[in-house]
Amino acid sequence: MNRIGLILFFLLAIGIYSEAQQPSKIRKRKGDTQNAAAASGLDEVTILGIKSKFLSKDTNGVTIFMRVDLSKPNNVPIRWKDFTDKFTLNYVLYPDFSSRERLGYGNIPLNEQSVLQLSSTKFMVRFDVKRPASHANAVLLSEISEIGTTKKVLNDLAVRFNAPKLSDRFALFERTGQVLMLQNYINVNDTLLIKDINKTVKPLYVMRYKHDFEAASSPMNTTPRNAPRTLGIDTTFIVNTSTPLSFAQEGLYYMTEDTTDVTGIGVVVTNKRFPKMTRPTELVRPVMYMSQNQEINELLGTKDPKKSLDRYWLTLMNGNTDLAKRTISVFYNRVEEANRLFTSYKEGWKTDKGMIFIVMGSPDRVQRSKDREVWVYSQRANFSEINFTFNRRPNQFVEDHYELQRYVEYQPIWYPMVEAWRTGAVRD
Predict the structure, then answer these.
(1) Per residue in 379-402, is it b (16+ CB within 10 Å) or e — as a string?
(2) Average pLDDT for residues 320-343, to the nearest whole number?
């Protein structure tokens, strides 16, 4: 088999192996991005990250859904008791991110009623929180602590007790109706439910948008991008909540109670392999973050994307097949992880967070406030510390849409990192 053929084979193999071979340090250092903390268990059980969402229960409180990602060395499966016996969970309610006035607190027993095991590494914790007197909104700060040590993992969640949005009351659940989906994407033809805590049955209007959103622009591009004022609606139909449904076509779907509503529930319906990317036409596009304009135009205009993409990688690596294989593996693992973590109304690799994650890797720490995240990178070869600031922007489809604050001053940081990718010097 020639060198081109070897790389082609490897590109396809990535789609098969990437999930099992995911570098542990990506998840360990980053988790769900917003929760980049790790705590080693007594039996080397490690909390990689926490992701949470609330749903209104009634006028007196909400139900919290919290997914906890764990790991053991050598991918050893984690038992239910590994989690429930080794950790504790408590929370405190504050008026907002800047206040430390306690509105309420609680300790959540980790038992059969509150903990559901989703897989060998994932658990869902569910518990109720009462509405504090005279407060419609609050910030819930939860803490999962390792028994017998000082190690803990924190998670913050803004809660609206008056539930003004559809997404405050309804959410996407897996087909059983037991597991809330803490992600903004599903796969084609997957069965799911849109439901609330009380299993209300009501119609929702659904609009499908078939739009190929642009990938993130350079961190140094301070010129405002003209986003489309409107998106063309491809299809409209009605679904009922608490009723199994599936979507047969890829695209961006938006569900509302009324066609005039400005907020609703958005979800990206993707192909069956997503968040992996295996189609040659898909694999071509993310390399734009490390490519010159001429290279991008050649890759996008080619009639044979497989051959062109292999030639691209081999050329960058000066014909070194082994180096090309390793760099391809690292790069597309990051693309997959970006899709998994940051998909909003568009694929994760296209978002600002996804771009920074792919090129720079996991941040060393994350600083969060109400409408801002700051990713801090320390001790790289060409700089001592650099911050990337993401500001939350209003978006009708999702609540977690963030945009990077761009500066031309990123040039001496960004270009050496891009060059490291182009020479195969990046290590994970």
Answers:
(1) ebeeeeebebebeeeeeebbbebb
(2) 95
Give alpha helix (H) positions in 40-159: 80-84
pLDDT cut 90: percent of the chain above it: 64
User: DSSP string spanning 263-291?
Assistant: --EEEEEE-TTTTS--SHHHHHGGGGGG-
Q: At 3, which helix (H) or strand (E)?
A: helix 3-17
pTM for the model stands at 0.83
Question: Considering the domain 26-163 in this protein, what is its CATH number?
Answer: 2.60.40.10
Domain boundaries, the chain: 3-24+274-422, 26-163, 169-270
Residue 233 · residue 227 · CB < 8 Å = no
pLDDT tens, position by position, 124-147:
999 999 999 989 999 999 999 989
Under the phi-then-psi rule, with left for phi > 0, alpha for psi from -120 to 50, and beta for the rest, what region is 134? left
- What's the DSSP call for residue 399? S
The whole-chain average pLDDT of the chain stands at 86
Identify the helix (H) or strand (E) that includes residue 122.
strand 122-130
Please state, in angstroms and rounded to a whole number, the distance separating the CA atoms of residues 293 and 144.
47
Name every residue whose Cβ is closer than 8 Å to that of residue 11 and which is 6 or more positions away in sequence.
280, 283, 306, 309, 310, 328, 332
How far apart CA 15 and CA 272 sit, in angstroms, is 11
Q: 189 near 247, Cβ under 8 Å?
A: yes
Q: Write out the H or E segment, with its range, that includes residue 354.
A: helix 352-360
Nearest to residue 115, comparing CAs of 154, 91, 142, 83? Answer: 83
The three-class DSSP label of residue 420 is: helix
CA 350/CA 401 separation, integer angstroms: 12
User: Exposed, middle or buried by CB within 10 Å (0-12, 13-18, 19+), for 195?
Assistant: buried
CA dihedral 302, 303, 305, 309 (to 10 degrees): -40
